[in-house]
Amino acid sequence: MPGTAAADPLILTLRLDAVAQARFDRERQAYFPPARNHLAAHLTLFHHLPGGAIRDIEARLEALCASQRPFRLAVHDLWMMGQGVAYRLRAAELMALHAALAEAWREWLTPQDRQALRPHVTIQNKVPAAEARALHDAMRAEFQPFDAEAIGLALWHYRGGPWEPAAAYGFAAS
Question: If DSSP codes are grouped into helix, strand and coil, which group holds residue 16?
Fold first, then answer.
């Protein structure tokens, strides 16, 4: 049972350009089990930040985004996750942004969020391994690396079900 709003954890994701977001959403809609697909495609940066610290978190994100320019992400590979498939993404700017936030929030981080960031966007999960392997193999045969653009950050409330938007931040215009 969810706790009070202040106690509910927060999730931080990277916002992507409209073209990449639409592609990932279409593929997630096509391949994710419908009964489990309650979210748009996303790249999670932190899975469990303290809801009680939302004002401090929002202030840090506002300051960071005011000075961070949009940046290119290379969608460079597919990842067979066992029971699903994801795209792997990379960008030096993303790793630096994540490292800075992890350092600032280190006392709040769960073991999962202390691990090295492995940037990915999941388009299929929680299916039988053979189904995941078949999708991975089919996508691998056609895969061509492509680019996406990081345009900001999104903060979400996790209250035991689908995520609820808390705030969205755009990176500084060029």
Answer: strand
What Å distances lie between residue 111 and 46, 49, 70, 167, CA to CA? 11, 12, 29, 24
Helix (H) or strand (E) holding 151: strand 146-157
Q: 64: closest CA among 131, 135, 133, 155?
A: 155
How many residues in total does the chain contain? 174
Q: Positive or negative, the Cα torsion across 139, 140, 141, 143? A: positive
46 by DSSP, 3-state: which?
strand
pLDDT at 5 over 60: no
Q: Is the whole-model pTM more than 0.90?
A: yes
Ramachandran angles phi, psi of 29, nearest 5°: -60, -40
The two structure tokens encoding residue 140? 């691998």
Amino acid type, 103: E
Name the E strands within 40-119.
43-49, 71-80, 85-90
Interval 124-173: pLDDT, tens:
999 999 999 999 999 999 999 999 999 999 999 999 888 999 999 999 97
